[in-house]
Amino acid sequence: MKIGIILHPYGEKTPGGLPRIIFGWAQALLSVDQKNEYIIFVKERPAVLPDLPGKNWRLEVLGNGRFWLDRLKKAPGADVYLFNTPVLPFFWRPPKSAVIALDYPYKYLKARGLKEKLFRIFLGWYHRRSLRHADHIIAVSHSTKNDTAKFFGVSPEKISVVYHGFKKICELPEKSVDAPERFFFFAGTMKERKNVFNIIKGFEIFLKSDKTKTKLFLGGRVEGEYYQTMLRYVESHGLTDEVLFPGYFNENELSYIYKRALALVFPSIVEGTGFPILEAMGCGVPVITSNIFGPAELGANDSAILVDPYSPEEIAVAMGKISGDEVFRKDLIEKGREQCRKFSWENTGRETLKILEDSATKKPRVCFIAHNANPHNGGGVLVGKTAEGIRTGMNARVEIISTEFSNTISVRAILSGWWFLSPRKIIEVFRAVRGSDIVHAFDIFPYGFIAALFSLAIFRRPRLIITAVGTGSVVFLYHPVYLWMCKFAAHRADKIIAISNFTKREVLKKISGLKIDVIHPGADLELIRSVASSGRSSRFDRYKPYIMSVGSLRFRKGYRFSIDAFAAAAKKFPDLKYLIIGKKYTDKELNILNKKISDYGLLDRIFILQDVGGEEELAECYKNAELFVLMSLNSGHDIEGFGMVFVEAAAAGLPVVGSRDCGAEDAVWDSRNGYLVRERDVEGWAAAIEKIIGDKETRQKMSSASLEFSRRFDWNDKNEEYARIYKKELRARVSGESLPQD
């Protein structure tokens, strides 16, 4: 494989942090990789060839000019290109590319004048364009990753955090410098974002209580308006003997200075990383740095004093602690040495090489369009688990477009509110669809319609898969305006999948002739069974014995009727309790349920728990229950599409009772691991509860049947079913053929 590295800037007489990081990155790659061939692209022919390891690289000079990067098109080609800043060629798009993102100070600092404002607008547009065109983004910190996603709308899935290494400066030969006997040190450029002014102000406060004649030694090129402003401040405040501007230092001079510094002070306002932080720690120098952005990550684990960069007072206090407490200073040195061991150029090189190799390999791009990927509701779990399974199982690049954010992978909340009135959001959706090989929508309307509509104008459009989940695939079929939209989406789809036979039948009632596969949702059997087999106690022990339901507190879940059924059955089982696990849907429904419980006088036996969080705690609840019930009902065409909670309960060995004439028919093994009862049949439900709770032998048989039945619903198996469909659709997209829906 040929790897192209754009080594720019390079060859400066007094290189700052950026050129040193860029050059270090190139050295790191070549140090760990002797297999691949490297082409090092530079803008101008350097006076001295780069001191890079190995013999598997050569230098190519592109030449000057405004669009010098576009000369890559005619230069010797590479399989993948590494750009050291988020700036890709203007007219030419590399076949595969990765960019390194350091930080975006112009997004945080105020522009001075119209010219700078206009330049920032252009730079923001160019960065957005380059970042979106790149196949992968390497962020130097989690802070930079978050900013890249936030400012430029890039999927977090496309961004990897790779910390850079650092040179062990203090192992280099020293070159003596006329330095004070005792001093705080800063290394960097004299720019606003480096916050040098607040270092001076903090030091001025520190001097009021200092008796040690400590100086402030500010290393960096002495030029520019910001420097002149600081110099005037120093002179007007009588600090010229205490605050020194010695100028730029090379690495040998830095070796001398670091070894003698009291501490490094580096409280940047905006900083993706902080090269001097690691250099100082490696030299055994305490560090005072910012509690925001990349420096806070480098100085984590109490390895540095983290301060508010906008507070000179905090900087002064930190200086006082280091100056006045030698025990504390030595402890900080040891923690710094330990922290910097986590960062090395070797790790940087290996991690970057893997990203470049992966980027050079074609990854299928899949865009999921769904209401949400919230792990606290069934539809969200289905989306999240399917997306994660495709990402890991097929090594796919996955993005989820939805109405709300969640903690699952790569979610962009574009479809919230009146999104279709926003040109920016419309363009974002179009780009996401256009850049995908497969678009997978959950429910025919509105998400299947959105996917079908946005793929209309795309040459060689992505393959469209629609999963019919429940209400969103049925209720709109009975509205004359929405029906044609649903038909449009369904007939545009290359594959339609339903999560239950009931949902399939409901769709075919209104759109005949469709070929619909059924793939049931799954459950995390391994997690549920590991919790069920554990002997640990839980918060639910105090309710035992109890039966339980799980689902949002909405009318469709049938809690009004299950409370009635429990009230009837409870007369025979005076110790039995009923736990309803779910989040509030509306105040009205919650108030109705609470009133029913109160009217029955069962406040000490029926409990609504809205604070059960996460799969593991829910599995604890399943483990301790006697029976799972959920009286789902169809409210008009608001339907229960399947009912994953039945499968989860079965995986924990619980007998289950569900409703007929809904998706739960596929989730309950009728008369084997439980019973199906007509919806709203309170007497029938009460009888089913009494039969299972009152007969230990029946309960044990059904428990065994539940464990057997649940094996059909492992998420791994379900994701393999989806993967087979995806692979078939990808082959069809490559060949350009139109597959029949089979």
3D structure, described in words:
This protein is an alpha/beta fold. The protein has four domains: 160 residues, Glycogen Phosphorylase B (Rossmann fold); 174 residues, Rossmann fold (3-Layer(aba) Sandwich); 157 residues, Rossmann fold (3-Layer(aba) Sandwich); 189 residues, 3-Layer(aba) Sandwich (Rossmann fold), CATH 3.40.50.2000. The protein is 41% helix and 15% strand. It contains 25 helices and 26 strands. It has a seven-stranded parallel beta sheet, sandwiched between helices. It is globular and about 95 Å long. The mean pLDDT is 92.
Mind telling me which CATH architecture of the largest domain this is?
3-Layer(aba) Sandwich
Question: How big a fraction of the residues is strand?
Answer: 15-25%
Total number of domains: 4
Strand numbers in spatial order across the main sheet: 3-2-1-4-5-6-7
Count of individual helical segments: 25
The CATH superfamily of the largest domain turns out to be Glycogen Phosphorylase B
Instruction: Provide the residue-averaged pLDDT.
Output: 92
What is the overall silhouette?
globular
Key structural traits:
4 domains, seven-stranded parallel beta sheet, single chain, about 750 residues, Rossmann fold, 26 strands, alpha/beta
